[in-house]
Amino acid sequence: MDDELNRDSSDLSSPTRGQGAKIIPLSEGSFTIDKTKLFIPFNETKDVLNERPVGSLLVEIQPFLVITSKDILLLDTGLGFNNNQGQLQIHENIKTTGYQPEQITKVLLSHLHKDHAGGVGNPHKEAFEGGDILNFPNARYYVQRREFDFAWQKGFPSFMPEEIEPLLHSHQVHFLHDDEGVIEDYIFYQHTGAHSPHHQVFWIKEEGEIIFFGGDDAPQLQQMKIKYKTKYDFDADKAMNLRMLWWEQGNKEGWQFLFYHDFKTPVYGPLSPGGGT
Known about the structure:
The structure is a single chain. By secondary structure, the chain is an alpha+beta fold. The protein has one domain (about 15-270): 4-Layer Sandwich (Metallo-beta-lactamase, Chain A), CATH 3.60.15. Helix content is about 20%, strand content about 25%. The chain contains six helices and 16 strands. Strands 1-2-6-7-8-9-10 form a seven-stranded mixed β-sheet. It is globular. The relative contact order is 0.15. Mean pLDDT is about 90; it is low at about 1-10 and about 125-130.
């Protein structure tokens, strides 16, 4: 991953409005991660990357709101960290955009690594406002059942069972079982098994616009532009080849790409600032 300097987590990226949808990155800030799989906040004004453990990667954590004519979608849920006031950071970030957590209608989960699923739910019901076990009480959650089973079996440090357990106990959860499918006629998903064994990606197609969210199969713009094989993908060759395929097809068809771990370019496409091929 790039080692760009971080942004202040309170400085949310500006929304991008497509033909029909509005895209809002929800930056949680920059972090380093090493072989311990712990995410340590990184502040460019005082931290030095070379002083972190050898092999540390500097990454952005960035869920997305996508507002369509039918839904307010949340794409992945961040780390699940609290701010200094004890409020869930992703809730604070959503409120900063002018929306409320209760307005989210669908949560689309690419996979359940803790930096993507930490904000799924609250294992301690009494700790969440109103006592809801899931952090978005009016949303339907979409997750691959095979991914949940794998995460539950694998556990720490890549997955946090106590954070994803609420998915088992809520009527709000819709487990996906197929390799590909469609949600309400305009959200398309595909099981890839590239970054993780049961990772999935999403296309949101509405009013002639295609928004693509590749999760950690396609985490950064730089990885799309070059033939790039990582050490941390479950199937590195498949992930690399999929990125090349999506990049070529997406540029031909004018996709809006959403990059979860990109510092400089969270949204890329013909409708985004500086976008285009």
